Amino acid sequence: MATWLLAGLFVGFAEETLTRGFVINLLRRARYREIVVAVISAAVFAGLHASNLLSGQSLFATAFQVLYTFAFGICMYLAYRLTGRLIVPILLHASTDPSIFLLTEYPTAGPLAIIAGLGNIVVIFVGLLSLFFIRGRVEAPASRAALQTQR
């Protein structure tokens, strides 16, 4: 069990550092609007999961996973934007991966599994709906520090 939790933490750390830490800050430094930042960072995140098609995952399962991870990426973008701290999406992401790993390795059926599966639909709905509310620009951390020293 500890291995699953540790793997989830490392995967969450790596993917969030790349997509929220690196990609978001790169796009903000380039002065893109936040909707563009959100969509591109989520698309990069989803693209990382599209490679599962190469490992033998079915086209349908991969397409659903790409849709889910895009919407999940929007949710993680919002967690980062609202808190300004990368640790928040890292921990949120790390809290989901161990259960996904376990369910993939040890599939189960029953009412709780069905209810848990509905969570995927909720994430997709919230993530895609949130796109309509993302506005403005957020300065990259380096830009904020430069502005403060100029004052």
Written description of the protein model:
The protein is mostly helical and 151 residues long. Helices cover 79% and strands 0% of the residues. The chain is built from six helices and no strands.
Q: Which characteristics define this entry?
A:
single chain; 151 residues; mainly alpha; 79% helix
Order of helices and strands: HHHHHH
Structural class: mainly alpha
What quaternary form is this?
Answer: single chain
**Main β-sheet description:** none
Question: Roughly what is the average pLDDT, rounded to an integer?
Answer: 82
Give the helices and strands, then pairings.
Elements: H1 2-29, H2 34-50, H3 59-83, H4 87-105, H5 111-130, H6 141-150
Helix pairs in contact: 1-2, 1-3, 1-4, 2-3, 3-4, 3-5
Short description:
The chain is an all-alpha fold and 151 residues long. Helix content is 79%, strand content 0%.
